[in-house]
Amino acid sequence: MPTYRSLYTYAWDIADIGVTQFVDEVLAMGITDVTLATAYHAGKFIRPHAKNPPYVIFPEDGVTYFDPDFERYGEIKPQAHSDDAIRAVLPALLQDGRVKVHGWTVLLHNTRLGAAFPQYTVKNAFGDGYVYSLCPMQAAVFDYAVNLCADLTHQHQLSSIVLETPGWLPYGHGYHHEFAQVASNAWLDNMLGMCFCDACKTAAKEKGIRVDALQTRIQENIKNYLALPADANADQAASWTQSDLLSDADLLAFISMRQDRVTQLVAAIRAAIPTTCELAVIPTVQRPTSACWTEGSDLKALSEVADYIEIPFYEPNANRAIADAWESLRQIGKPEKIRAILRPGLPDLNQGAELGAAMTGIQALGVKDFAFYNYGLLPQYQLNHLASTLKERS
């Protein structure tokens, strides 16, 4: 099979120079595939090599970069990007035909839909809703995610669809103007990231989990910690999390239930999309990847229902990226199931200088497929470095 050398990108960056020039440019770099955002959340991005303004862009929140067929949807329907030229990029890129195209599809991180359907958002142990995070245990949310992927892939002949945020988002996920005067840590984020919406509680009770008592324990633990005149360091927080998992059977069962739901969702998407379209899952935004359970991801189970697990090995140096790849492979078992994503510039891999070392080390584990993030965000000199690194390995 040909290797996968994909470049993550946004439609606005391709529209800036036109599809033909964009494809000419990436082919010259040694790129064979493009992973294009087809459904995406809000943000604020600086475009260091933009040819035309805006140089700082605020994308429309929670929209698709294709025209949805609303007949495919139930209660929750997507909203398309307002600019016809932006929506035209995907079909034009496919029509060009010189690179394989993969649909980077953000599923449940959607503040626009969360604001429209607050009853379907994640509710923490205190009942506070997270407007940016739809809960996959909610039937309407589950159906929306399946319908979105089926709609996209039946309209457009993608080589694969790449799913991001199929599960529960962590508490700290860069929500705009996110303020705290309390030091965060992995334990606190995990506790605040547990969802106790009506659907999660009903599902837990059906499995015999004493979810009301669990919710009360988590409430008290959070309140007691926030009242503590001290902060936990990373090692302490990791130990607390491990202690909870080993000592609280209901918490462990609750986490397992969440993992089962995410696996069920990915399996349903796999069944709903064309057999000619492969399915990849980005299991987590956590570092290291082994923390993916906090979002409901089970690497082994997901690898059995998806074609690929596409993992962001976003680390400050090559050694840590290689170690993360080793641990991920230990869980998944098959290197051909893994696609690696690397950032060939800030803030990773010693500002991109260790890109080649990371690729060499990860390839030595048997992983052959790589993607790189992100065309529009990287300065030109780092794109040039990526190109030279790929050419050295061609």
Outline of this structure?
The chain is α/β, with parallel strands linked by helices and 394 residues long.
Topology:
Elements lengths: L4 E5 L1 H7 L1 H11 L3 E8 L4 E2 L9 E2 L5 E2 L14 E2 L3 H4 L1 H8 L3 E7 L4 H6 L4 E3 L5 E6 L4 H17 L4 E5 L21 H8 L4 H9 L4 H16 L7 H14 L1 H24 L5 E4 L17 H7 L2 E5 L5 H15 L5 E5 L12 H10 L4 E4 L7 H13 L2
Parallel strand pairs: 1-2, 1-14, 2-7, 5-6, 7-10, 10-11, 11-12, 12-13, 13-14
Antiparallel strand pairs: 2-5, 3-4, 8-9
Helix pairs in contact: 6-11, 7-10, 13-14
Describe this protein's structure.
Helix content is 43%, strand content 15%. The chain has 394 residues and is an alpha/beta fold. An 8-stranded parallel barrel has the order 1-2-7-10-11-12-13-14, surrounded by 7 helices. Strand 13, helix 14 and strand 14 form a beta-alpha-beta unit. Helix 6 packs parallel to helix 11, helix 7 crosses helix 10 and helix 13 packs parallel to helix 14. The two termini are 15 Å apart.
Q: Key terms for this structure?
A:
15 helices; two-stranded antiparallel ribbon; 394 residues; 43% helix; globular
Arrangement of strands in the largest sheet: 1-2-7-10-11-12-13-14
Global outline: globular
Mean pLDDT: 96
The biggest beta sheet is recorded as: 8 strands, parallel, barrel
Order of helices and strands: EHHEEEEEHHEHEEHEHHHHHEHEHEHEH
**Residues in helices, as a percent range:** 40-55%
- Which structural class best describes the helix and strand composition? alpha/beta
Low-confidence stretches: none
Strand % is 15-25%
